[in-house]
Design goal:
heterodimer, A: 249 residues, alpha/beta, B: alpha/beta, Rossmann fold, 9 helices, 18 strands, 29% helix, binds flavin-adenine dinucleotide
Chain lengths: 249, 323
């Protein structure tokens, strides 16, 4: 079985968000870049399956649409354990454009399972997996919180309101995963970091594709009024405020 | 032209978000001089379907087909696409939740219609068609222009609210074609709790963090929630430890919610947690550490031991309810 994992190169989750150029572009000064948290969990889970059942998963490839500055993040995925990486040399400006690029990769080299995170933590598009599956005319299962391969078949659970569904699917398919898929993301070992240097990272040029959307500006939320502190010995006052001032209970 | 809404029901009743979506669609339809059509898939009774008229839907397409018993992304996308064609819809509205995201993204490709996900308001401009949406996990807002003639939006829950505007509503049976070739996924088993308040629908949420010390201390959280008709939530380590189920996990990697009132009990307020709750209209924090970042996000705060404060809070709420 071959698995493809789509990874997005995003600012560290603790980054203070700022904008430049008259609020039209994200300020990348001093930003640390990481693998999008869900994508990292997806990679972790794929590796867990590969390790638990030797021989079942022959290859785990990661793909990223990004310029050369996303290579350290891609190398990290290789250090964690991916076998190969593909970088499509383009700025990931619009999800439809990004999906078009990755669809082309899948058309050329077939994969049994393609995994995407439920969203990218930068622009929160939450659409790549769905778009990709429609472009490839493949089934997709979203909000997947459990993924396993048992006797050559894929076992899946997806989150629904107030519970879970167990889902069976034909292969190939696209899994759009969320948290729960793996507990903690794997961190690269020293050996992993060394071997990553010799693993294939292929850069390819993008195909022509449309951009259906465009960001034209950004805003930061208005600062909040200071918190009203209530004496811990007078909890009644809180209820009073919530009832009479906030009128919420 | 029309504005089409993808509705969602839970055990045959529309989720609150559905009425919000219709209210939102009605606001857009007014600006475009068109009307709102709602699409319902599943077993929903006539009274429920007609209730969509209270928020401005003039027509409801009612799809009942056993093949569509479970959410199937591919087949559902086809159904919505057929409804779009039938109603000549040029704006399609979904909820920004698991099923909304799953179908909206596929539909975007099927119709080659630009998609704006996680919208927080009605479009700020219709030419160019510009939508404000959350970015960087609610740490900022982005203005995104959709460049295609047909547009798809997923609305962040509770960002718009409910607006009643009663209109005459016609319910029409709709039988779209469902191809077997699009039914490649099958649901084998369902495990769900019924009767629980949906976290994303809850007006009030009581949430606990690691400061609650252990699952055995959740009694007061549940009691307070029951008293207030609230949903229960938790921070990520709490669900990771298995103290609470995963579907209660709120934050950047969990559920994003925007209730009117959010109680953070023993939650430090890490930036990743705030990403999931900062849309709340009012936040109450109970934490023993006066420097906990949660107090920066909170409207009301008590610096104290949550295990002592909660029982007193419950007693005070009971007093209020008894008045
Ligand atoms: C990539 C990534 C994604 C993440 N996503 C999420 C997410 O989606 N949601 C999320 O919640 N977290 C997320 N986290 C984790 C986040 O960084 C924090 O670790 C987590 O939110 C902390 O949970 P907590 O507040 O329950 O626990 P802690 O940080 O341990 O805080 C416990 C708090 O309880 C207080 N306390 C202790 N005892 C008492 C007492 N007796 N009375 C009153 N107060 C008390 C303490 O003062 C402290 O402030 C993520 C982290 C990463 C790296």
């Amino acid at each position: 079985m071959k698995i493809l994992i789509c990874i997005s190169n995003v600012p560290d989750t603790t980054t203070k968000i700022k904008f430049v150029n008259n609020n039209t572009a994200f300020d990348i000064a001093g930003v640390q870049w990481i693998i999008n948290p869900w994508d990292e969990l997806a990679l972790t889970r794929a590796l867990e399956i590969k390790d638990a059942q030797p021989g079942i998963i022959e290859n785990i490839t990661v793909v990223n649409v990004g310029l050369i500055d996303s290579e350290p993040t891609i190398r990290k995925a290789l250090a964690i354990g991916a076998d190969a990486a593909i970088r499509i040399n383009a700025e990931p400006k619009d999800t439809f454009f990004v999906a078009s690029q990755i669809a082309e990769v899948v058309r050329k080299e077939s994969f049994d399972i393609v995994i995407c995170g439920i969203e990218s933590s930068d622009y929160n598009g939450a659409a790549l997996g769905g778009m990709l599956s429609e472009m490839l005319d493949l089934p997709s299962v979203s909000a997947v919180s459990h993924l396993d391969v048992v006797n050559g078949a894929v076992e899946l659970k997806r989150e629904i309101d107030g519970g879970q569904e167990t889902v069976a699917t034909q292969l190939p398919f696209i899994a759009i995963i969320q948290k729960g898929i793996a507990k903690d993301a794997r961190i690269p070992s020293m050996r992993g970091i060394m071997t990553a240097k010799s693993k294939p990272l292929t850069a390819v040029e993008p195909i022509a594709a449309d951009l259906l959307t465009e960001f034209v500006g950004f805003d930061l939320p208005k600062p909040k009024a200071a918190c009203k502190k209530i004496d811990p010995d007078n909890v009644r006052e809180l209820v009073n405020l919530l009832h009479n001032e906030a009128k919420l209970i | 032209m029309s504005v089409l809404v993808y509705t969602e029901n839970w055990d045959g009743k529309f989720k609150k978000v559905t009425f919000e979506l219709v209210s939102y669609a009605q606001e857009i339809a007014k600006k475009l001089g068109t009307s709102v059509v709602a699409l319902s898939i599943g077993n929903v009774n006539d009274e429920q379907l007609k209730a969509l008229g209270n928020y401005g839907a003039t027509k409801v397409l009612n799809v009942q087909d056993d093949k569509l018993k479970w959410l199937n992304n591919q087949a559902y996308t086809s159904v919505v696409a057929q409804a779009v064609a039938k109603e000549n819809a040029n704006v399609i509205i979904f909820a920004h939740n698991n099923s909304g995201k799953a179908i909206a993204s596929r539909l975007s490709v099927r119709l080659k219609a630009g998609l704006a996900t996680g919208a927080t308001a009605v479009p700020s401009s219709f030419d160019p068609f510009t939508v404000t949406k959350k970015v960087f996990t609610s740490k900022a807002l982005g203005n995104i222009v959709i460049k295609t003639p047909v547009r798809i939006i997923t609305l962040l829950q509770n960002a718009f609210g409910l607006i009643e505007s009663k209109v005459e509503v016609a319910v029409e049976a709709f039988q779209p074609e469902v191809k077997d070739s699009e039914l490649k996924t099958v649901v084998k088993e369902v495990n769900k709790i019924t009767g629980k308040i949906l976290l994303t629908d809850a007006e009030i949420v009581v949430s606990g963090g690691r400061g609650m010390k252990g699952p055995e201390n959740w009694g007061p959280i549940e009691e307070l929630a029951a008293l207030l008709g609230a949903g229960t939530a938790c921070s990520r380590p709490v669900s990771d430890e298995g103290w609470r189920p995963h579907d209660e996990h709120t934050g950047q990697t969990g559920k994003v919610i925007a209730p009117n009132l959010y109680f953070a009990c023993g939650i430090s307020g890490a930036i990743q947690h705030l990403g999931g709750i900062s849309g709340s209209k009012c936040i109450v924090a109970i934490n023993k550490d006066p420097d906990a970042p949660i107090f920066e996000a909170a409207d009301y705060g008590i610096v104290g031991d949550v295990l002592k404060v909660l029982p007193e809070l419950i007693a005070a709420v009971k007093e209020l309810k008894a008045q």
